[in-house]
Structure formats: C-alpha cells, structure tokens
Amino acid sequence: MAAYKPVVVQACPKLGERITQDTLYWRGYKTPVQIKEFGAVNKIDFSPVPPYNYAVTASSRIHIYGRYSQEPIKTFSRFRDAAYCATYRDDGRLLAAGSEDGVIRLFDISGKAPLRQFEGHTKPVHVVGFLSDKYRIFSGGDDYASNLWDIPSATEIISYSEHTDYVRCGCASKVNADVFITGSYDHTVKLFDARTKSSVMTIEHGHPVESVLLFPSGGLLVSAGGRYVKVWDVLKGGQLLVSLKNHHKTVTCLCLNSSGQRLLSGSLDRHVKIYSTTSYKVVHSFNYATSILSLALSPEDETIVVGMTNGVLNVKHRKPEEKNEKSQKKRQPAYRTYVKGRTYVPKQEDFCVSKPVKRVLRKYDKLLRSFQSSKALDAVLEPPIMLHTPEVTVAVMQELHRRGTLRSALAGRDEKQVNLLLTFVARRVIEPRFTPVLVTVADMITDIYQPVVGQSAIVDKQFLKLQEAIGKEIDYQEELLEVLGMMDTLFATFTKKRDTCLEENTSNGLAEIIETNRNY
User: Fold this and answer.
1) What is the pLDDT of residues 262-311, one digit of tens each?
2) pLDDT in tens, 490-508
3) Residue ranges of the domains in the chain?
4) Span 26-317 CATH architecture
5) Of 74, 221, 286, 336, which has the fewest CB atoms closer than 10 Å, so is most exposed?
6) Which is it for the CA torsion 405, 407, 413, 416, positive or negative?
C-alpha cells in the first residue's frame, strides 16, 4: 500500500506591506507604557532642554513626567477648574497655561505657586505660548480674542478681536520674535505681527481649525481641521501647497520631528499618520485604542507621547541600537556552528546512513487518510483557519472534489454549519485565487439545500449575501471588459497612426534619394 501524501496547499502571492526605511525606523519603538490621567489629555509639551521632561495637561492639573518615569515628578494644581495648553519656554525654566476661568498662569519649574497671573480674557483660554524673545506671551480664548502679554509687568500689550469664533490653537515664529499665528473655529488662520494693530495675513482653511504648526524656517505653515491637513506657503502670501485627506475623522493635533523631515498628525479616528515633508505621502501610521487629542515627539525623537480622550497617556520609547548590535554578534557563532558541515559532499568510499524522517500530519490530513471526509471539512472550517489561512480550507475542498466526496461532505449539516459554510464562500468567492474551487462549492451547496430554503432566516440571509457578492463581481467583470475594449481600440488607433507616419517617412526618404541620383 502506497504511503499517504498530505494535501498540497497552493502558495498564492499576497499583497503585503511594503517594507521601507521609514517602516523599520518607526517600528523601532518599544511596546507602549500606559499611564492613566484624571481626564482627557488636551496638551503634551516636551521641555526643549535635557533631560527632556514633558508636561501633560489633563483636567485641573499639569503633571511633569520624566522621560522614563511612570509617575509624575511634579504637579501644578493651582487651578479652580480645567487647565489648558501647558507650554514650556525655550529655556525650559517657565511654564505657561490657560484655564477655564480665563486666567493665564505662569509657573517656575522649580516652584509650585504661579509667578504671574494674566487676567483679561472673559472666557476660557485654550491657547498659550511664548514668543521667541522669551519675554512675551500670546493667548487665545473662547471670547474670540488673541492677546499679547508682557511677562515682567504682567500687563496686556495688545488685544486682537478679529476672529468670529473660538480660538483653539496657535504657535509662534522662531525666526521673528514679533510674529505669532492663531487658528479658530471660524475656519480661518490669522498671522499677527506685534508691531501692527491688525492681522497681516488671513488664511481660509475651510473647516474649524484644531491645530496649527509653523516650520522652523518660518516659511511653511501647516493647519489641521476637519479631515484635512493643509500646507501653506507664508512667503507667497498664504498660497496653498498641499491638501492632505488621509484621516477618516477630525484631525486634532500636529507635530514635527527634530529634523523637520517628518510631519505627524493625530486624529479622532485613532490613528497617527506620519508624512514625508518632501513628497507629503504617508510613510507610516500608528493605531491606538481610542480617539487622539494630543501628540508630542521628544527633541531627539526618542519618545512619542499620545494623549487620548479616555485620559490614557500612551508613551513609546525607541529601542537602543547598541544592544541590537551586541545581540547580533552573539548569535553569529551559534549560526555558523549550526550550518557547519551542511555543504559536505560524501566521498566514494563513504557509507551513508539515512535517518528516517518522521512526518507529522495535520488534523485534516489524518482525517483524510482515514477517509472521514465530513470531519476533515469540519476541521478546516474552524474560525482560526478560515480567517488566517483560508488557502488551507480551499485546498481541502479541492482535494475532496478530486476524490469525488465533496458533495457527501457538504450534505447533512445543521443550520449553524450551513451558515458557517455560506459565510466563508460568500466572503472568499470573489478572490481570484479561490474562485474556481468555491464556485463549484457554491453550486453544490445550492443544489443540496435548495429544498430547505425558507425554513431558516439565517441561512436565507447568507444565500442572499452570496447572491449579492456574485452579482457585484459579475458587474465588475463587465465593467472591466468594457474598459479593456476601449483600451484595445485606443491602442489599435495609435498603432495605425504610427504605421502611417513610418510609411510617410519611408516614401519621403525614397523621393529624396531619387532626386539626389537625378542631380548626379
């Protein structure tokens, strides 16, 4: 009796993820650390100086975390109500934050009580930032005002009331100490110069603006609102360069990496998208558990911190590269030892002893070997196999059809099993690699269970889904055939024109040769 040959599972090419240098780089972050805050995290800001601590604004507190600490090393809690937008100064010594009561508070990192309080807004202040001269603060609030403050005297320098809705984001220029930008829910982004009494530029974003970001050079501005991330050329009067629509819900936050070559955007769709600032294409993305409100990247790109609506702080650190190199060096001798002697060719006088290889059969192969067709089909209809390796399920169906036992294996099933079969067939029949086998399976299922149609609402629903899937696929095939016909016509027209041009050139060449001969 011949030995049993296991079922051959056809290896079909799959469209996998393209592995690029960006993919490898952004995958180099460790498993995230989860920290629970008291409320939704509305702002994360890294200190610009070592050791690069970061301030987290949530509920009525501001927590300062060390890069690798899971507990706050300092807390500012002198707020009556919610705190907003805690931002570091460029030297990392001062921290400014807005609040629900409209008061802006300035803190010294080494102290606890506020150094200064700036009162002038009549509604909550959601935007606070330092100008690059370090002695002035700009702010924006729900009273539609954008104000400029003097730190030493704690007085208001100027107030702009040009927005017609809540001011919810802003940033300052690092090139010019008098320029700052605010974004509002009135769909506009305004650029202010402290030396003038009104805005010097207005940009229409088209959606409520949630975040704005200015490149370090000061020439490019990024605005986020709705599902759009837009890049503007400030030096050309606010000309739109790129409009990106890669998120499915509102984009809430933006940040740049240390080199300015990668732009990160976070959204309520739970994704962080990473763009190249040269091509503005998505080079990588991160998926999170809930909607994202805030995002920050450390100055050395070693840490990514994401704040979410459920109050969870997600912290990822880069894996150190030196340890990877050492581990590779340790593995090399073991690998050389493992492959040693594999290329040895036996000599003529050597006596070779072959070691019998024990073949381990899978569950469905054992059942097929004992001719239990129905149980073999049940073994490959288990959810893990159907979902992750559908090619195994189809290979067993193909083997049963070759043996002529597929019909008997499909027959005699209850409502739950028929529902499982139809679900698999309806989902996979449109895949070209499975279509030839599953069309035959669908025909057999229809023939066997046609008499019981109408007795089970679940089975009837699956039959309708199968019919809809096949109908859509037929429509797609018809459309593709129409497109192919149009393309064939175009290619035929191009070929005729090319042949005509060649004939004309040939005839002209012959005429020139004849005229030349006559002259001689």
Assistant:
1) 999 999 999 999 999 999 999 999 999 999 999 999 999 999 999 999 99
2) 888 877 666 665 555 555 5
3) 26-317, 363-473
4) 7 Propeller (2.130)
5) 336
6) positive
